[in-house]
Design a protein that fits this description.
The chain is an alpha+beta fold. It has three helices and seven strands. The protein has a single domain, classed as START domain (Alpha-D-Glucose-1,6-Bisphosphate, Chain A, domain 4). A hairpin with an 8-residue loop joins strand 2 and strand 3.
C-alpha cells in the first residue's frame, strides 16, 4: 500500500522569487509554516517545530536532497510516528505574472503511514492557504 499526495496551485500575480524565498528562507518559513532552522542547501539537516500536543512532541525533521533555486527543492520529511521516511518536493514554474507551485509528498508505506497520508493532505491544504496569504501580503515588499 503506497500513497502520494499531489497539490498544485496557481499563485496569480505572485513572482517566482517571492514564492522561492517563502519556501526556502527560515525567517520567512516561520511566518507562514513553522519555527525552523531550515537552510536550502543540499545535504543539510533541518527541524520544524510545531505546537506539541498530548501525544505529539511537535518535531519534524529531515535533510535537503535537492535545491535548485527558482526551480525546485526536495527534502526528506520525518517525525516519530511515521514508520518510514517520506519526501517532500516543491516545484515552481513561472507563467507570465503568475507562478505555478506543485507539491508532492511521497513515501507513505503500510497501513499506518497510509492513514497519516490523509492527515497530511489536509495539513498541506492548510499550509498552502497560509502560504498564499503570506505571499499576497509580502509581494510588494519583496527584495529581488
Amino acid at each position: 500500500m503506497h500513497k502520494t499526495i499531489h497539490k498544485k496551485r496557481i499563485f496569480h500575480g505572485i513572482s517566482i522569487e517571492t514564492l522561492w524565498q517563502a519556501l526556502t528562507e527560515s525567517q520567512k518559513l516561520e511566518e507562514w509554516f513553522m519555527e525552523t532552522n531550515f537552510k536550502a542547501q543540499e545535504n543539510v539537516s533541518f527541524e520544524f517545530f510545531d505546537s506539541p500536543g498530548v501525544k505529539w512532541k511537535g518535531l519534524y525533521y529531515g535533510e535537503i536532497i535537492s535545491s535548485q533555486p527558482m526551480i525546485n527543492i526536495a527534502y526528506s520529511w520525518c517525525h516519530k510516528k511515521l514508520k518510514h521516511t517520506t519526501y517532500v518536493w516543491w516545484k515552481l514554474e513561472s507563467r507570465g505574472q503568475d507562478t505555478i507551485l506543485e507539491l508532492e509528498h511521497s513515501g507513505f508505506k503500510g497501513f499506518m503511514d497510509y492513514y497519516y497520508s490523509f492527515s497530511y493532505s489536509n495539513f498541506w491544504n492548510d499550509k498552502l492557504k497560509n502560504l498564499l496569504l503570506y505571499v499576497s501580503q509580502k509581494q510588494d515588499k519583496v527584495e529581488i
